[in-house]
């Protein structure tokens, strides 16, 4: 019940395309859903986050769509760029503790 | 503002040895967290300090792992004796006291890559 399931495991997108990463959860007590971006040799960095009472949040090229009834949320990266190539983690928070998805390795080809 | 600092960045030790990882949180951040990522798997919560007190240590794998945060500043995570399955990247994160909010800057360090051979 504490799991967050993330897919796909890896994703290859052409420059300018849309990258979509999906996550699903079970525990309705989760109160905050962040996405993290991680480059090799670095720690995860907060990219964008959403609260469960909001259905969509957009920051620049990054959008979170949140479906509370389906217990699913997704990250959309519009106009994907080679510099977006990284590992992306979805997460869910409960009491300040983060439960992470398995991660998605995104590669954006020029 | 300095970020969360972890060292060493890499450590290779033999099975049975002891290793101590250190984390220096952002100054003023009373919340300190340890996480671990075993290769290819999700990042998993280990424990949470509020100042020097352990708030939640439900993720600690076993009693070979000991975390301390003396004086509520830096924290250490000791593995003794290390086993092969302890290999992975250990991340530390810190945030300000209070209700968890994204604006409170839950910030991760770059991690310590531990390899047990």
Mean pLDDT of chain B: 91
| CATH class type of chain B | Mainly Beta
Beta fraction of chain A: over 45%
Kindly report how far apart the N and C termini of chain A lie.
40 Å
Total of DSSP H or I helical runs spanning 4+ residues of chain B: 0
Explain how this protein is built:
- Chain A is an all-beta fold and 110 residues long.
- Chain A has one domain: Immunoglobulin-like, CATH 2.60.40.10.
- Chain A has strands at 4-7, 10-14, 19-25, 33-38, 45-50, 56-59, 62-67, 72-77, 86-94, 97-100, 104-109.
- In chain A, strands 2, 4, 5, 9, 10 and 11 form a six-stranded mixed β-sheet that branches. Chain A has a five-stranded antiparallel β-sheet with strand order 1-3-8-7-6, with no helix packed on it.
- In chain A, a hairpin with a 2-residue loop joins strand 6 and strand 7.
- Chain A is globular and about 40 Å long.
- The N and C termini of chain A lie far apart (40 Å).
- The model of chain A has no long low-confidence stretch (mean pLDDT 95).
- In chain B, the strands form two sheets. In chain B, strands 2, 4, 5, 6, 9, 10 and 11 form a seven-stranded mixed β-sheet that branches. A four-stranded antiparallel β-sheet of chain B has the order 1-3-8-7, with no helix packed on it.
- Chain B is globular, with a radius of gyration of 14 Å.
- Chain B is mainly beta.
- The mean pLDDT of chain B is 91.
- Chain B has a single domain (5-98, 108-116), classed as Immunoglobulins (Immunoglobulin-like), CATH 2.60.40.
- Helices cover 0% and strands 48% of the residues of chain B.
- Chain B contains no helices and eleven strands.
- The interface between A and B is medium-sized, with 24 and 24 residues.
Brief account:
Chain A has strands at residues 4-7, 10-14, 19-25, 33-38, 45-50, 56-59, 62-67, 72-77, 86-94, 97-100, 104-109. Chain A has 110 residues and is mainly β.
